[in-house]
Amino acid sequence: IEVRALLAQAKKRGRYPGVLFVHGRRGLGELVQKKVKRLAARGLIVLAPDVYDAHNIDAFPYEHDYALEETVNKGVDALLKIPGRTSKKICLVSHTRGGYYSLKVAVTKNRQLKEVACYVSWYPHMQDPNAPEPSQVYGYAPEADELKIPTMIFIGEDEQYQRRRPIESAVKQLKDKGRDVTLIVYPGVGRAFDFRPENVRTFADDLAAKDANRRAAEFVTRHLGQ
Length: 226
Prior knowledge:
By secondary structure, the protein is an alpha/beta fold. The chain has seven helices and seven strands.
């Protein structure tokens, strides 16, 4: 299949860490593209494939099409071919449902510790979207227990309960296993604090978004080098 993608990097010439940005249910629309560019401006090469467009899926799908996972996996291969990266490895960066797609690529597609060095996600969906409702609220994807690469996750303290609980449960289990995982919780903000439109944004959203972008870029750079 043909996959359209946005490729962004800092204006200054040089070598930069490579990131595969995996969008969520919103798709790769204008607001998400701005997020990709903001990350790139902090010294990253960011490849963001439009996986919904590739499968003729409209934005905000309810069910999960498992074929998307292989398309994201192919995105790793595409990024590895892009020159100017500081490392032979890349990091997976995502938000919302893209966090689940990235998790499956890292674990099920066996890319972690090989081509993928770290996992970063904003309020990720940590459960199979097709799982029954009780599993959505009280469980989390079993693949999360097998995540072995350094991980950083961002959420707002007002995150939806049915999303926050699986994230915190997965993070706790990873910490109990001695894994390198960091959960950042921002006060005074909720879901989508990093790309809410201007007419509903708050100062707290701006502070959280800026801090998360900085932390994400530093985290990726630390694991992929400058």
